[in-house]
Design brief:
Layout: H1 19-24, H2 45-50, H3 56-59, H4 63-77, E1 82-83, H5 90-94, E2 99-102, E3 106-109, H6 131-144, E4 149-154, H7 156-165, H8 173-181, H9 183-207, E5 211-216, H10 224-230, H11 232-241, E6 249-253, H12 260-265, E7 270-272, H13 279-286, E8 291-293, H14 305-318, E9 325-326, H15 339-353
Parallel strand pairs: 1-4, 4-5, 5-6, 6-7, 7-8, 8-9
Antiparallel strand pairs: 2-3
Helix pairs in contact: 4-6, 6-9, 7-9, 8-9, 9-11, 14-15
Amino acid sequence: MSVNQSPTGQQPTATYDSAFMKACRREPVPHTPVWFMRQAGRSLPEYHKVREGIPMLESCTRPELVAEITLQPVRRHGVDAAVYFSDIVVPLKAIGIDLDIKPGVGPVVEKPIRTRADLARLRDLTPEDVSYVTEAVGLLTAELGSTPLIGFAGAPFTLASYLIEGGPSRTYENAKAIMYGDPELWADILDRLADITTAFLKVQIEAGASAVQLFDSWAGALAPADYRRSVLPASAKVLKAVEGYGVPRIHFGVGTGELLQLMGEAGADVVGVDYRVALDEAARRVGPGKALQGNLDPAVLFAPTKAVEAKTREVLEDAKDLEGHIFNLGHGVMPSTDPDALTRLAEFVHTETAR
């Protein structure tokens, strides 16, 4: 189903005519819609207050807490979409993988996945495994009204990199060793992760998410030929599997300037662009038929307001001829960002692009 259609047999939802959804569908908008990756949490004092003493992964399983954290940036910044508060490793934890998110480090896997025998640990994800997600999304859609909720999941390559390395990596040596040295095992790992990711996205969509974003955070570590051969098929499987729901699908990775065309080919409706490639050039690389999302450097927000506005105008100028544009940062909100800078930025984009 095209994102230009409302779900078959249903009336358009409350969010269907929002600026965010229109931009995803490459339709005229009253203003360029804005949301920020990692807006839920990170820099907000109210986030740190409600999460005080609660480990990250536990906080993701408390529906009322998830709803509160997800809503905080909508209330404070006036953004055009909420993004579900969670973490890309939540579905892995839900199927029994022994992992934790360690402050200052990130996800750490107790026993990495590195052999064919380890595949048995990657069982199917069921809705019952993440019933708290269904409950939280229900709470959110009731509160958000016409503001869309973006669900999300980690793409198979990024999940595989954590599982195989055992945690964050700069070199991905263990993952690439399997990718190059045992391509059949590699393909089976990514295929299994594609099914888990698909199931996680379906839970969010069926509970009421208006759009979804597939994060392939670490895909920029790959050469285009390796991405096409060893990663694109699994990401394409995920995006194809949720196509029938008719919700916009966003695909984003970091350092993926050389992969933008391929990421577009994977099947998303919107391609996220990090801050390293100007949006007009990104549009040339991605090709027609896609909206783009991005792409202010998050570090710009530490500069004086006039400098932020100048850089924002550059992004908007680069985006002026795009088929559809959603304003975002070129990566996530940094933890020490002044929340007021984000509020001012959202207001500035709305004012500058009012039609």
